[in-house]
């Protein structure tokens, strides 16, 4: 796979300019402008009804002087979207599920809030002039097109939707090189790495160490894993998240996705990114430098901190949430992951080695397999089987453009669905 040159990337994106400069980077100029005009930063939240979306709106509600929501978008939870729109009074509310549109329109028209529905309306909204930053909090492949449209429209992106970088990290990276847009990570591990890198010379980074809780099945044997239920898998020990990412954490494919996400965000080769199991989820990730020093960012497992940091353009502001008391943690432990019990972790290295559409195929097959598992139609261990089988059968494109990702995503879904049917309970 063709590698973007680290130094080129660092010098040309706003994302990294903050790491190179001890003073605030380019995007902070916008914040200064906002402060001068006393206008709150205008934001779009796509996936507003989910776990990240609702926590984002908590932060907006806490600081109306700093943030104003102008676009809200959700999948199908129309009642929650209506509540959010009534509270935040955006200019536009979008529901992806067209069947729910009439209810949204009827509820919000009396308030003068514009409404729309469908995936295309959501993507088109990314070009509106009335916001500067979009929080991508949708789940799965649905985040890709809006993110691309937002980059084209020079919006800044607070990126929660890691699947966008898993599916098309190479394309997104290339687009950022010639765009005014910048990405700040919301994912806690990547936010931690970002925070560790501030003030450092990127050339001195030796490796990124991404922590993983190990999920609810960390201590189960292979034979125990054969029997786990959906309810077991949804019981994450440390984090409260949406269902899909909770299952991804249980299989540890979430960590594979985060390795891929880190490769693109920080432009570092896969062999210098490692995952380490840290069951307490207090150390959110680490960076080791060429002199051997390791920097880490710690905090309680609460996404408000990385969301607030990304929304505030990598600046720190007061936070009301419970904070870490380090003396409460006598034992912070770390160990290597067991890829025999959690083979999905290996998909990261396979995807980054092969490049092209491999990660797109893995993501599509995983989405199909996780949905089938959640619907009680697939065994937990067969999530890996479905992904492997889909990878073998889906045509590989070595230098994909956007249309290749779209085609690969639908072909891989078709193959994965057939595989789910073959294995169905
Ligand atoms: P949730 O399932 O809680 O929320 C997903 C959101 O996306 C909901 O608002 C949902 O709407 C919306 N949505 C679903 N499908 C579509 C669609 N086709 N078009 C538009 N909107 C859609 O997920 P999370 O908040 O947990 O995760 C969101 C993203 O953030 C994921 O990519 C995840 O990997 C990432 N992330 C999440 C973390 C967490 O702590 N939750 C941590 C780090 C990353 P509705 O509910 O109305 O159908
Ligand atoms: Mg994470």
Describe the structure concisely for a colleague:
The protein is α/β, with parallel strands linked by helices.
Overview of the molecule:
The protein has 425 residues and is α/β, with parallel strands linked by helices. Helices cover 46% and strands 14% of the residues. It is built from 19 helices and 11 strands. The chain has helices at residues 6-12, 14-20, 26-37, 51-62, 78-88, 101-108, 119-125, 144-152, 163-177, 188-197, 222-225, 230-233, 243-251, 253-266, 304-311, 346-354, 358-374, 382-393, 402-423, and strands spanning 41-46, 67-74, 92-95, 114-117, 133-136, 156-159, 183-185, 205-212, 273-277, 283-289, 294-298. The strands form 2 sheets. Strands 4-3-2-1-5-6-7 form a 7-stranded parallel beta sheet, with helices on both faces. Strand 3 (92-95), helix 6 (101-108) and strand 4 form a beta-alpha-beta unit. Helix 5 packs parallel to helix 6. It is globular and about 55 Å long. The chain starts with 5 loop residues before the first helix and ends with a helix. It binds NADPH dihydro-nicotinamide-adenine-dinucleotide phosphate (NDP) and magnesium ion. NADPH dihydro-nicotinamide-adenine-dinucleotide phosphate binds next to helix 4, strand 2 and helix 13.
